[in-house]
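Per-residue structure
===
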Amino acid sequence: MKPQDLLPSYVLEHNARIAEEAEEEKETGMIRLEQEDFGTYLIVDEDTGKDRLVQVDYDYPSLASTFGWSPRKVVRKVQGKRCKHLNTDGTVLCRTCGATASMFIASATDYLDEHIGDTAEDPGYFFNPDCDEAYHG
């Protein structure tokens, strides 16, 4: 009899789940933000050196959120209270306070400019866990 045969099945399932999560974490690497010409950005895979160009400002809120930005950085007040922008990802108008997509994009761009060289966990720019191969936007 093997030692693992003595463990209850829920312990074995838990251990298998932890091992699977650890393997998934290994597959998602780190990315680095770099600035490119003409107000564009590069995302660089820290492990492979591969890069992706992000050149459409509409993509900046999503990219900035990867590095810690949030639409909440855009300060607008409604009835004396700061709006949390819960109904926007930064690419559309906030229906609560009227903050425009342009305001969010400008804030995200400023944030990106201040965080050149920062690293973050790759949310799927180079590896998409739902697919067998890298995401090719």
Summary: The longest strand covers residues 30-35.
